[in-house]
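Continued from yesterday's entry.
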Amino acid sequence: MKKAFFITGTDTNVGKTYIACKLIQQYVSQGYKVVGMKPVAAGCELIDGEWVNDDVLKLEAVSNVKAPRALTNPYSFKEPIAPHIAAELTGKTIEISVIKQAFDALSQLADIVIVEGAGGFLVPLNETETMADLVKTLNAPIILVAGIKLGCINHTLLTIEAIKTRNCHIDGWVANPIDPDMCFYDDNIAEIEKKLQLIKQIDI
């Protein structure tokens, strides 16, 4: 059994949290100890005197391993903007080493760690590193959430190319219909499947 998966997306708001939660629930139902991790969250609300991200709360709700939020969400920012900008506004720098330490600690507590990224695969974390660098450091296979809307073929293929260029491993992909009025939905899915060939589509 693999110890971790990294959930990335073709864009922001394509359903990464939804898919991450579904994966957690699936593994919990199979008897595994599972915890969700959101290394960087931008966009929080004040709850009981603490700034908390809604995605983090959703991951916590379905995890059957309870861990300190300092581990499941090392970096959390109030403004719903790109992580590196949100960090700069608070005078902080997102450090991949800090996230790796938290990830390693969670890996000791759980059989499986489901890590949800922020935005897409190349979202900057600081001046020199992106989400892609975090994926390589964690060495976790990727599950790509493709938001099925106008432009999804291009977005998906560009993301896959970026993943392969950085020698990261993609375990599978999920087609998430985020535009219910999209024309030729099945045709777009079929074209993506044809282009991806050996990469399996995950049915969640």
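--- second protein ---
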Amino acid sequence: MPNLIIEKNAGKGTKSEEPEPTKPLSSARRFGPLVALGTIAAFIYAMGWHRYLSFEQLATNREIITSTVKDYFILSVIGYGMVYAAVVALSLPVGLFLTVLGGFLFGPLIGGTTTVISATAGALLIFLIARTSLGETLAEKAGPWIEKLREGFKEHALNYLLFLRLVPAFPFWLVNIAPALLGVKTSTYIIGTLIGIIPGTFAFSYVGAGLGSVIEAQSHAYNECIAKAASDGVPAHCSVSLNPADLVTPELLLAFAALGVVAIIPVLINKFRKK
């Protein structure tokens, strides 16, 4: 009888040590986060809320914004970081304006650092969602050429990612999603994103820090235009002429392109050696 009990217990122990099979994610869990992000982004576009993140709004409400930042500096930095991360995750096309705004409001050091951290966090969020929803599906249905592309990208993932981040020819949202479809590791993605966006972020943060007089002049001209239209009793057709795209000079693009070439040199050397 004791032997039977021992064998029975041993059988239970052996059975409990067997690993349970991993269950595949359901369609709701796989695509739910991606659908939620797309719905939120579409709603923001439909409501026109993204238009509030513009130089025109900054010039109109400059005094209110700067006084609020002065009175609640820490909370303003945290709020700015949260908004930036959300904008990146939702792929809204106002990242350049926000980067310049961060330098204008908080200075190049604090503004640039907050932007780098927030942009990396937002990019990581959309990367993880895209990898879970689209990456697994692509891996399951990938043809030979997709598999070859994935393997080639993974071999030099960090160099390729740095190249894509440094060269401004590629949209930021596309570079956030593409590595998820090509099987890049999360740690490599974080490092490549964090390092790759530092030069551009701090460059535009320094630009923003020096925009005080420009924005003040634009704000003064805008307010004068509104006041004149009101006194004349005619509709106001006033706008701020400063555009974030005007800040992207050919020299700046050339500098980023040069950094991108430096990042890709090790890959080219390795391929040359193999040949």
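Residues 33-208+249-274 form one domain. Residues 4-22 have pLDDT under 50 and may be disordered. Will compare against the first tomorrow.
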